[in-house]
Each structure stands twice: as structure tokens, then as C-alpha cells.
Amino acid sequence: MSMKTTSGDTFKNFKVGPRTKEIKKVNDDKKPIVGFSSYQKNFPNWKNGQNDIFHEKHPQYPFYSLPFKGESNYK
Question: Hey, what long-range contacts does 54-63 have (CB within 8 A, 24 or more apart)?
Fold first, then answer.
């Protein structure tokens, strides 16, 4: 009885070596970059860390806090 198999006849033992990564160097052309993020553009820093108090020159009061100027039947 023959113990030969097709796989045993055609199989060739070989080893696979590890792949090496190719490191590509990037050309640095010193291109200008944007120094601000979109958040910094939309919301500027007002530097209110000194606890400055902002006063309005002419504050707008609600209408119900104004005194009534006029005549009324109820006295």
C-alpha cells in the first residue's frame, strides 16, 4: 500500500519572513499654516479673567419697572 498523497508530493516547505515597513520621508516645504482654530475665530478671548464689570451706558429696563406717568381713574 502506498502512503504517498498528492499534498505530500507537491508541498514544498518554505518560511515567510516578516514584512518591513517602508518609512517615507515627508518633504517639509515650510508651508504657512492657519494659526487659529475655528473656535478661536468665532469666540474671541475677551480676557475677562480680571473680573472686569461691564456696564451699559444706557441700560434697557423692562417696561413694568418704569413709573406710571399719566392720569388714572383709580386713586
Answer: none
Q: Cell numbers for 9, please give them.
A: 508530493
Residue 48 pLDDT: 66
For the chain, the residue count is 75
> What pTM, to 2 d.p., does this model score?
0.25
Q: Average pLDDT, stretch 30-43?
A: 83
**Residue 11 CB partners (closer than 8 Å, separation 6+):** none
DSSP state, 39? H
| C-alpha cell at position 16 | 515567510
In the block, cell 475677551 appears at 46
